[in-house]
Fold:
Amino acid sequence: VAQLKAREREFNLKLVFALVEGNYLADVGVTIGNVAGKTLVQHVTDGPIFMARLPAGTYVVTARYNGNPQTRKVTLRGDRLHTEYLRWPGNPQVDFPGPADGRKGEPAQRPAAATAAVAPRQDVAPAGIAPGIAFISGGIGEGAQAQLLAREKEFNLKLVFTLVEGNYVSDVGVEVKDASGKTVISHVSEGPFFLARLPAGAYSLTAAYDGQNQTRKVTVVAGHLRTEYLRWKSNPQADTVLPPER
Structure:
């Protein structure tokens, strides 16, 4: 996000995609045409922010997520950056909006099966420490998110990372220590979801985002998924936060 924000001066149109609940989206189809109906840009986003540089004038922007299109007419004036926020209602079959209190909770429904997606990153625990531990992270984009949720039964700990406003975050450093203080997992998440399978017992977990740490004591048991929501205050220098919905 910081890398994109640093380049904003090169563009005059920015689109930001999210659920109504605030969670960022990817895999959004974007079509931009002129008022005569000619398509000038057609793209599927790799993340929640899309920027373009276009000649001054009026354009029709259509963004499609999960089969639902939104259309906006925008007028661009020279180099001035015009920003549009596009939101969609959460779909319980593919989306995972966090609870309002920022703590524990589960979605009302889960997808029945995984959809095609980029495989989530999977790592192993440090050699010689607590064999049998496994974990994965990811969940950027509709398909990748569904793929992770479809595998929840394999794990007994789930972490979900967001800003206070609800927007998903990634690149979160995760460290899990057992009751003796040994580090059993050290990982940087590649998306807002982290799933782990741990032997039953008590653990201390630390999640670090943008230099800010959160620590939780958790007890996990076999065959039961424990979910922890970790939220951070937004940093205006690095985060793009959605304004209240108009």
Summary: The two ends are 23 Å apart (CA to CA).
